Prior knowledge:
heterodimer, A: alpha+beta, 3-stranded mixed sheet, 11 strands, about 30% strand, B: mainly alpha, Cytochrome C Oxidase, Chain A, two-stranded parallel sheet, two-stranded antiparallel sheet, 16 helices, about 70% helix
Amino acid sequence: MSAEDTHGSSVAVAARVERRWATIAVIIIVGMALLAAFAGIHQATMPQPRVETTDPSRIHLAGEFVESNLGSVLEANGNVTVRAIGQQYSFTPACIVVPVDTPITLRATSADVVHGILIQGTNVNTMLVPGYISEQLMRFGRTGDYLMPCQEFCSFGHEGMWGKVKVIDKTDFANRAKSGGRLSCVGQ
Amino acid sequence: MLVNRKLILAHFWFAFAVFGVALTLGAWQMFIRSPIGTWLSNPELYYRSLTAHGTVMGYVFPTLVAMGFGYAISESALEQRLVGVRWAWTGFWLIVLGSIMAVIPIALGRASVLYTFYPPLIGNLFYYLGVVLVVVGSWIWVALMAINLRVWRKAHPDAPVPLAMFANVAGSYLWAWTAVGAALELLLQIIPVAAGLKNTIDAGLARIFFSWTLHAIVYFWLMPTYIAYYTIVPRAIGGRVYSDSMARISFILFLVVAMPIGMHHTFADPQVGAGFKFIHSAFTALVALPTLLTVFTICASVEIAARLRGGRGLFGWIRALPWDNPMMLALAFSFVMLGFGGAGGLINMSYQLDASIHNTQWITGHFHLIFGGAIVIMYFAIAYDLWPHLTGRELVDVRLIRTQLWLWFIGMIVTTFPWHWVGILGMPRRMAYFDFGDPAIAPQALSVTFSVIGGFILLTSGIMFIVILARGMRAPQVDAGPYRFALAVHQPTTVPVALNTHALWVALMIALTLTNYGYPILNLALGGGTSVPAVYVGAQ
């Protein structure tokens, strides 16, 4: 074998190795995208699918987010809907009460700037952008208190914007819901 | 052939000076909000500092490094005097002016909106105008890079463009286009409100415009680092670039797919539907490809160096590498941090996993590890490598350089690993204060304390870096010779047009941006009814 041949074959080896690696890289990437698609479609772990808007300068006057409609409500089908707003520098209600092991729909928006809701110890995590309604499905597996900080910078009082989520027993919640109205745990 | 050395040094010195200031602010921020700091009676000071830190580290420092390095590449790789030197100085002074103009309102507490702007929060007009001037100054650099390549092409028709310049121009085009998103947000939305011409703003639309810039800007920061991986490291450690064409393909991929993916920053936002979020998530996966190709090519190039030095065996060659060479050390540290940071990035880009860490300290940890770690450590290496050629003086204290790099690496790991951890525990970002007395937050105190120690190690390392460069200005004179870039194993004599020009790829970059952003932006812009009153910062 001449020097030229050895060189030629090493070039071929180099190109082959490189091609193999590129193929592996592409497989990894396609695999990841497919995994995300599968989890998204099959297990319905999608971000909020629809865009809903609202006028933040009027939310306190009429519609879904008037003060008397904020808090948790037990729906006829046994599910719970929680409505909340964020404003500089607190959530209303500041303490959200929900039952354990129940499908819950959180609907929230902002009255002024961009805020965020994060419930520690869970993967409940959504932005509150004024003008838009955020909706997130959630379900708590154990009772207890969870901290709910604002996770987006909302100006100088941001560090003081912490809410709370109180997850209570199902029957306890049902009893409280009997009297109607919107439930919260503010002041408890 | 480095002729305009003063120009390049001016860029580097201004970059490193503002970096030093922003680094100090960063360390102070970590300390003041930690359990070992005392409660800051005025939290607003924290947000001033945070805005300054982000503005400098995001817009000023990396842009100046890319520009200075770009001019150095243009002169030395093309072996051609820089065309448009007066324009280059104009760009530089615009950035200096813009930085000063932006920093004054920040220092006065009139622009504490963070570098990500966050409308409807609106700060002082001059803050935004300052940022615009910085971007305009950098666009002059983009134009100059294109013009210099054009001049060279005329003199060398059909010759392969040197890899360093090919990549440099790709990086400049990426920057020009990615900055358009924030520019649109500033010019169409924020500045009219800050100037008092309007008083409402669509925060959802603004977030989409910003996401256009927010992700690809990271790849612009990354470009000098990748150029160093491919064109400096192999030369500095005595190896060769494994494959010139794979290098070009990687840079082209960055140009094309770094752009249309920014909406993965808005997975948790209500103003975009799930469809476009999924598309952006899938494209984000794609951007891992050029990095995976780079990791292969650079490891192979390094192995060539090791085997040329007598390294043997399947892994035994690693011992034969020149570990006392700062460039080798910086590369190894950079790769380790890129590996951890990249793995974290895969979690962020995933639709499902993102929800558990979105806007927590995990994110802060992630981008400090990637940008502050993997990218900036190579900026140090680039400066060390270029310095003797710029100053005509030798950097004598190699041991000090090695210690500086080690400290930066250790500091970055000690800072960011606990950050990731507390992020998983749900600690939110950008807070001036945490009540560690709360039993639910108390378990995070130890991790945060470690993180502060890391911050001070980084500060020490940053100061050492500046001292080393300053001492290098007075060291004994030496003839460093011409500045050279690494050669490939098979140095190309001809290169296919697609791998030698940018036009096709720039067209593809723009087209993909339009397909991935066009509909969401038009939908939000034409939808109407979602503009909200501006909230002026510092107006009370």
